[in-house]
Design a protein that fits this description.
Protein name: Malonic semialdehyde reductase
Shape: globular
Mean pLDDT: 98
Pfam family, one: adh_short
InterPro entries: NAD(P)-bd_dom_sf (IPR036291), Sc_DH/Rdtase_CS (IPR020904), SDR_fam (IPR002347)
Number of strands: 9
Family: Belongs to the short-chain dehydrogenases/reductases (SDR) family.
Low-confidence stretches: none
Number of helices: 8
CATH class: Alpha Beta
Structural class: alpha/beta
Keywords: Oxidoreductase
CATH architecture: 3-Layer(aba) Sandwich
Strand order of the largest sheet: 3-2-1-4-5-6-9
Bound molecules: NADPH dihydro-nicotinamide-adenine-dinucleotide phosphate, 2-hydroxyethylsulfonic acid
Oligomer: single chain
Helix content: 40-55%
Length: 249
Amino acid sequence: MSKTAFITGATSGFGLAAARRFVAAGWKVVAGGRRRERLQALVDELGSANVHPACFDVRDAAAMAAALDALPAGFAEIDVLVNNAGLALGTAPAQQASLEDWRVMIDTNVTALVTLTHRLLPALVARKGVIVNVSSVAGVYPYPGGNVYGGTKAFVSQFSLNLRTDLHGSGVRVTTIEPGMAETEFTLVRTHGNQAASDTLYKGAQPMTGEDIAEQIYYVATLPAHLNINRLEIMPVTQSFAGFQVFRG
Ligand code: NDP
Ligand code: 8X3
């Protein structure tokens, strides 16, 4: 019998590519996202026997609960939870950033992620499931304008390690994927819709793709049951680190 993955943020980028990757390998996928027409397109592409659209805003706990309660037979038993839905908003330094942007990032990247995880944990324990949390290099290394976005991803990484501790002996595996620069709709969203800024960032940089990260998600989720990758940090070859800065007044 095929297994089921619940992938949040499956209308674009990593989540969309991951949904395709899991279905290609014979899995069923519950595909999350707000854009209903994109979820329907995914169902049309991959088949209603393989994909169930779960259209809700992850920040809306009641809508999340309703979507989970409405999972049809064949999709209701979740083996792998991929907490991927998330976003960055803004690149301004903290002293100029929008508080509303900060709140949206925290609500989406942190509060929604722990809410869905909390809700599915008993079932994941019962099935010895897998949790894959999508964090970021921005949660490991600081960079200018990373402020709250990096903070939310540091939370995701540390929460994941702490989950592992609490789940000791349960057979549940928890992995954090920490990607660097990948061309998706991420920068379009971060810049509040500036396609030119997004194109400029990725031009000539050979960024990673949604498919690159989907392959990592699939890999960590399908390892032999005695193996747990704690964190998987991955960057394009073209991206590395810059040094400390010194201000001389
Ligand atoms: P995309 O913008 O392409 O995809 C983001 C996905 O998240 C969309 O499917 C979107 O669906 C969903 N999402 C966002 N907000 C909500 C919400 N409130 N409710 C439901 N779904 C939501 O970006 P990526 O694929 O790049 O991003 C996926 C994850 O990877 C994010 O957590 C991001 O922080 C992380 N990441 C991205 C990197 C990159 O360079 N691209 C690098 C490191 C980490 P919809 O809008 O339809 O609701
Ligand atoms: C975003 C990754 O490299 O743009 O999570 O900071 S990067």
